[in-house]
Design goal:
Layout lengths: L29 E10 L16 E14 L3 E22 L2 E25 L2 E17 L11 E17 L4 E18 L5 E4 L3 E4 L3 E19 L4 E19 L4 E4 L2 H6 L4 E3 L6
Parallel strand pairs: 8-12
Antiparallel strand pairs: 1-2, 2-3, 3-4, 4-5, 5-6, 6-7, 7-10, 8-9, 10-11, 12-13
């Protein structure tokens, strides 16, 4: 009963559930809002860094729901906005001498979710849902022995559209038509395309070489009829799924030299060299 079209879940992955069919335009209006803020003004500088990078965090969460048109339309809107500028410290030993720097790694998460119930007739309702979510993470990987030149950025986006038409055929019988569309995209890009240099317990420099792209579309359609008897509940119909998913990875396409220590790096004697070739 709780399975998806691909077969995942099912009774073993969630068990039976009680489902409530909402009526459009019913109930009362509700809402809530919460926000928190933090900054670097009351934070001390890291003693191992020569600078004090800015630190900032902001979280905003809000929700509003209720009848827009009495006995006809209900809407539920949820928003979440979280921005973090976490700080770290690079403490490395380079051929030019000790290197220390405080760095900021900004991350921004946003999501907007709208749901609505439109009462088409006394026994027919249309449920509409739309979700839009994004994430942007900058200056990844930097910290400890990893220099700022080896940073990368990851951006993701998700879209979900949900349509569901419910017809109450009788006191015990319900007809349910459900369509879901999902679109996902994720992309990671390094700050620069260059050979990677890793010197153990000293520094990690060069390019991050973690370029990656993935995404796809999924479509799910179901047409079901429910019948609730005195001692037996039956659900019959069909459920279909179609998807197109792609992924391209260009990890380590410029090569990486690994040195056992700083003396080996100065002498030009690497411990290992590796590179990925051919079609990504």
């Amino acid at each position: 009963e709780t399975a998806t079209a691909s077969g995942a879940g099912g009774l073993s992955g969630g068990g039976a559930r009680t489902e409530v069919i909402e009526r459009g335009g019913a109930g009362a209006f509700h809402g809530n809002f919460a926000s928190t803020f933090q900054s670097e003004k009351l934070n001390a500088r890291n003693p191992f860094a020569r600078n004090k990078p800015p630190y900032y965090e902001r979280t905003i969460d809000g929700n509003a729901s209720g009848p827009i048109i009495r006995n006809r339309l209900s809407v539920d809107f949820t928003v979440s906005d979280n921005k973090q500028e976490n700080v770290g410290t690079v403490k490395a030993e380079t051929p030019d001498g000790p290197f220390s720097l405080g760095v900021t790694r900004p991350t921004l998460n946003r999501s907007y979710n709208v749901k609505g119930v439109l009462q088409l007739a006394d026994a027919h309702s249309l449920n509409i849902g739309f979700l839009y979510a994004t994430k942007d993470s900058k200056n990844e990987n930097v910290g400890d022995f990893t220099l700022p030149e080896r940073a990368s950025r990851t951006q993701t986006g998700n879209h979900v559209m949900d349509l569901r038409e419910i017809s109450i055929l009788s006191e015990r019988t319900v007809h349910d038509v459900h369509f879901i569309w999902r679109k996902e995209h994720s992309e990671t890009n390094p700050l620069g395309n260059a050979l990677a240099i890793t010197v153990k317990d000293a520094f990690n420099g060069g390019g991050a070489q973690n370029r990656d792209r993935s995404g796809g579309n999924e479509y799910e359609l179901s047409n079901l009829i429910y019948f609730v008897g005195e001692k037996l509940t039956m659900r019959s119909g069909f459920q279909s799924w179609h998807g197109h998913i792609s992924s391209v990875s260009e990890d380590n396409f410029y090569g990486e030299f690994i040195f056992s220590d700083l003396a080996s790096f100065r002498a030009g004697k690497p411990l290992k060299y590796r590179i990925t070739c051919c079609d990504p």
